[in-house]
Amino acid sequence: MSKDQEKLEKEFLKSYDDFADAIFRHCYFRVSDRELAKDLVQETFARSWKYLAQGKIIQNIKAFLYKTANNLIIDHYKKKKELSLDELNEVSASLASDEDLKIQSRAETKEILNILNKLKPTYKEALTMRYFNELSVKEIAEILDESENNISVRIHRAINDLKKILKIYE
Amino acid sequence: MNNENMNNEKLIKSFIEAKNTVLTREEKAGIHGFLLEVIRENPVLLEKEVVRKGLLARLQYQRPLFNLVFRPISLILLGVLSFGGISLATQDSLPGDFLYPLKVNVNEELEGLLTLNKEAKINFEAKRAARRLEEAEKLDSAGRLDEEIKYKIESDFEKHSDKVNKETRKRIEKSEKSLGVKAVSEARKKLEKAEEELKKGNLEIENGNFRKALLLFEKSTQAAKEARRSIKLKENSRSDSDEVNENNNRSFKNNKSHNDD
Question: Which of A69, A86, B127, B192 has the fewest CB atoms nearer than 10 Å to its CB?
């Protein structure tokens, strides 16, 4: 193996260590299914490696990973229609109960997923990227290829809608 | 009220803790192992193979000076000197092809510059946007639509399609000032329809349904065209009636001065 190849492999695996959890969170809150989210993480990184292996350059690995994950999520929804609330309840009941999990309880996560799924898809996406993935507005704009202004407005509207949903939810 | 606050607090706490959603150690190690297999099965291409497959693409990322200075000059020269034969091949090229930058950055830009009429310019932007969707569809069918190319196509489509409705909106706003809001209400409704169809089209693009997106985009451009036509008719009929009024005023003045005499 050449030195360049070794270096690329090392950098790639480091990016996996750095971003795997964030990408997992991103996928999980979009698809509401832990096993599927894991598969999507795996596929995201696999595709990213294959892209690099072709000799292509990735300027911003973080943005690339999120874009790849987004495309995989979209492909998933193309194949299946969006989960109904009943199906969602079944899926979220399949969450692992391993003690290593840092989610407080299945019931609370189910509740969060139910609420998030009431938002418009683009609002849910912007909100989860901002608050669960802790991406800046600038980073989100780059990943989604939109202006920072559009993203800021979208997050603001998502929060307003969330407030309305929370009021109805009680 | 207390119950309400407690429920909200509980939910907010859940939101905060959901940020800690992570892969377990075992899950992370499992994926890591899988990736090592992927790396073994997909070794990095050797330098000379990369050069053979896509010299220009590689240089595009690695040589800023080349990208800013020599590449545009070389592409323009290439376009000008070998217009006939290469032009045909260029027109059919797709994102990722060697000649694609020539198609988009030279041929289409030249075509745009040479389109002088305002209405024709808008139609040309619509044509460019539609081309992006057609390219996406062809690449998708050929299994060549990767993430970077998809996002590039989507942002190019948005750039050109936005211009169509933006120009239409500018004309409507201008006409509202001269003709009044009521007079251009029909045009406004058409523009709203155009924007609605474009929104649906963008959703289809997100879902990878490029053919459907193209049909919705065509409906959108048609509605925008009808909006502009409606304004033109109103403006023409206004200027016709202005002319009639002016003629009437002139003949009234002439008659009056004749009578005074």
Answer: A86
CB contact under 8 A, B147 and A57: no
Write down the mean pLDDT value for chain B.
Answer: 75
Helix, strand, coil content of chain A in percent (nearest 5): 75, 0, 25
Burial class (CB within 10 angstroms; exposed 0-12, middle 13-18, buried 19+) of B18 = buried
Beta carbons of A49 and B14 less than 8 Å apart: no
Query: Confidence class of residue A6 from pLDDT cuts 50, 70 and 90?
Result: confident
The pLDDT score that the predictor gives to residue B23 is 92
Q: Answer whether B134's CB lies under 8 Å from B110's CB.
A: no
DSSP for B147-182?
Answer: HHHHHHHHHHHHHHHHHHHHHHHHHHHHHHHHH-TG
User: Which of B2, B10, B35, B59 is most worth mutating to test chain A (most A CB atoms within 10 A of its CB)?
Assistant: B35
pTM flag (> 0.80)? no
Q: Do A46 and B17 touch (CB under 8 A)?
A: no
- What is the rounded distance in angstroms from the CA atom of residue B100 to the CA atom of residue B136? 13
- State the amino acid at position B66 in one-letter form: F
Give the three-class secondary structure for B20.
coil
Question: Mean of the pLDDT values across residues B97-120?
Answer: 74
